[in-house]
């Protein structure tokens, strides 16, 4: 590796997150001897699926506009509607139809977010806080959603596994569900769009400088609206994946996870000020917080202390992002002064 590429690597937040992941994994392995066992690694991948899908929503929102905290409730309501409709229809066909129903409702809810934000130029945090409360009220009030068994198509898909492993020493087994393939497909599509299309360039340009993006010919309003519509569809997929992995619909299990997902994305290098963020950062940040949540119990750390670790990581990740934004602003001011 050349010095130039090494210097470039050291400037990336993802590089340091990766080093922290390696150090934490080695530490847990030394203390417990269980981290690198096949069943623990499969459990980690399994636990990452839904948070990583939600992380896409957080990334797209932060990069283009600002925080979106409505995706868990969009996931809850859209997956409820899709599951309920499929159940009442006694649907037994391919599960993709159920996903399409959920995505339709999720995109409608995302469109509501996008319309309010674009039309009235309200802060995305305030808008999505408000709509998430509305969606929660509709779910638990209007529909009186309760725990529900899955229709046959979803249950059949949930029973399928991509990989099954058994720990020879402990006898514990773990399975990697088919929803992992959905995660891979979503990230491949997102990578191709963000890196090789004008729409993807527009998403980053919009978050970097809205006025400059408009002058460059990007349709700022359409891109911003489209981001929230897409976020609604992705959230619906995440909600249905959660239900399928749980083998039942649980309406109260969705709310409350948005802050950890947002923290994971920020920890992975996404700037709160917009314009900067990568998919690999999403995955690395999600992996780190998943490791803290799932693996510290292997070394005897109580659940309450796990929350302390997660809180500390959130503060550190936010501080790093803020410092990077501040240093970037200082550099821009110096360049402008020199140019003048």
Automatic annotation (TrEMBL):
- Primary localization: membrane
Instruction: Say which domain of life the source belongs to.
Output: Bacteria
Membrane topology recorded in Swiss-Prot or TrEMBL: Multi-pass membrane protein
Protein's name according to its UniProt entry:
ABC transporter permease
Protein source organism = Aequitasia blattaphilus
Signal peptide (UniProt feature, chain positions):
none
Pfam short name (any one): BPD_transp_2
Q: Which PANTHER family match?
A: ABC TRANSPORTER PERMEASE PROTEIN YPHD-RELATED, ABC TRANSPORTER PERMEASE PROTEIN YPHD-RELATED-RELATED
Q: Which UniProt key words apply to this protein?
A: Cell inner membrane, Cell membrane, Membrane, Transmembrane, Transmembrane helix, Transport
Residues that span the membrane, as ranges? 15-36, 48-75, 95-118, 125-143, 180-204, 225-245, 251-270, 282-302, 308-325
> Can you say where in the cell this protein is located?
Cell membrane
């Amino acid at each position: 590796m050349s010095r130039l590429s090494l210097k470039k690597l050291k400037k990336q937040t993802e590089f340091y997150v990766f080093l922290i992941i390696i150090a934490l994994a080695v530490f847990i392995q030394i203390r417990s001897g269980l981290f690198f066992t096949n069943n623990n690694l499969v459990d980690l991948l399994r636990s990452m699926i839904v948070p990583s899908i939600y992380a896409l929503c957080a990334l797209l929102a932060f990069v283009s506009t600002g925080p979106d905290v409505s995706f868990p409730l969009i996931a809850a309501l859209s997956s409820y509607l899709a599951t309920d409709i499929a159940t009442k229809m006694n649907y037994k066909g391919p599960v993709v139809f159920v996903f399409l129903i959920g995505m339709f409702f999720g995109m409608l809810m995302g469109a509501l977010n996008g319309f309010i934000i674009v039309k009235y130029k309200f802060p995305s945090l305030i808008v999505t806080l408000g709509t998430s409360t509305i969606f929660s009220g509709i779910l638990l009030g209007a529909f009186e959603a309760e725990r529900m068994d899955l229709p046959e198509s979803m249950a059949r898909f949930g029973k399928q596994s991509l990989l099954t492993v058994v720990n020879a020493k402990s006898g514990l087994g773990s399975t990697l569900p088919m929803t992992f393939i959905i995660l891979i497909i979503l990230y491949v599509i997102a990578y191709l769009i963000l890196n090789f299309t004008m729409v993807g360039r527009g998403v980053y340009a919009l978050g970097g400088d809205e006025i400059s993006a408009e002058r460059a010919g990007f349709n700022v309003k359409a891109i911003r609206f489209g981001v929230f519509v897409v976020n609604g569809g992705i959230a619906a997929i995440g909600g249905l994946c959660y239900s399928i992995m749980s083998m039942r619909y649980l309406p109260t299990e969705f709310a409350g996870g948005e802050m950890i997902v947002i923290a994971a994305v920020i920890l992975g290098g996404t700037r709160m000020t917009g314009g900067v963020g990568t998919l690999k950062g999403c995955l690395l940040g999600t992996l780190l917080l998943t490791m803290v949540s799932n693996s510290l119990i292997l070394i005897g750390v109580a659940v309450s202390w796990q929350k302390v670790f997660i809180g500390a990581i959130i503060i550190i990740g936010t501080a790093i992002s803020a410092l990077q934004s501040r240093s970037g602003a200082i550099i821009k001011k110096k360049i402008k002064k020199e140019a003048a």
